[in-house]
Amino acid sequence: MGSSETEAIFQGILQGDRKSIARAISAFENDAVLAGELLKRMETDHRKILSIGVTGAPGCGKSTLIGALAERMAEEGRKVGIIAVDPSSPISGGAILGDRIRMQSASAHDNVYIRSMSSRGMRGGLSRAVEAASSVLSIAGMNVVFIETVGAGQSDIDVAAVVDVTVIVLAPESGDEIQGLKAGQFEIADLIVINKSDIPGSERLRASLKSTQQRQSLRILTASAREGSGLDEVVGELNRLSSLVGTRSWTDEKRVKIRAVLLSMVAQSLSSYVMQELRESGLAETVVEDIANGRVSLQQASDQIATLFLNRLNRGKQ
To answer: Are residues 41 and 68 in the same domain?
Structure first.
């Protein structure tokens, strides 16, 4: 890929050409050479864009809600980008990519651009190319970009480190994921939206969440993307939060979020390293046999493996 073609793609992005935007985002997913050239070219053009991360368990209506909010904003004259990260097959890397179906009305709007991306097996709900794709949309003149995560429960928190505003979506029938939310996700949320408010139980859930959360600044709203109720209030709150971006209070909260995400990512990296070592050394099969034959308990085996790696780490410091 020559620099002239890279320049042509970049100029197309500046003009909001959808084919150029799509080509650039695809490069960040699959073409390291072109992606590198585009990154260098994009460094010369920075534009402010409000990034909104949206997470929540499957079935809570994230895609439908994002589509409805994007349509409202587009009708106000804003240009809205949507990056929908779908779960992908660990074998083929292919994604379900069903979000466009749930955003049909918004996708027909000239001011809305939707791109589905595969998570490529990444834990935490984001594809590696999401930040680059967001930059492409900002250069293309978008005012707002929604980033919809896979929706993997409490582990789905890394979005908070790369967006301005983090929204958690729940549904009245939410069950076990509420406990996970109480345990960890309150600290990364800027707004909680209980979608499907036309279903009984939304106000009861809202009252329950309000009674347990400690952050007075965290608003909990109800809405129904299907019926269109509550959307103006959600948009209004997103506008209010966007006005805080860059202030001291926003920066302080951002540090808290980054710290939580960093610890989660470190744990993920350590877990991947340990699993690889166990497989390559054959220790995993040995330990499994010991557990199966009753020579050691599952907890004892886990503790022994952890001690083994901690001892390796300590020897490395000497």
So the answer is: no
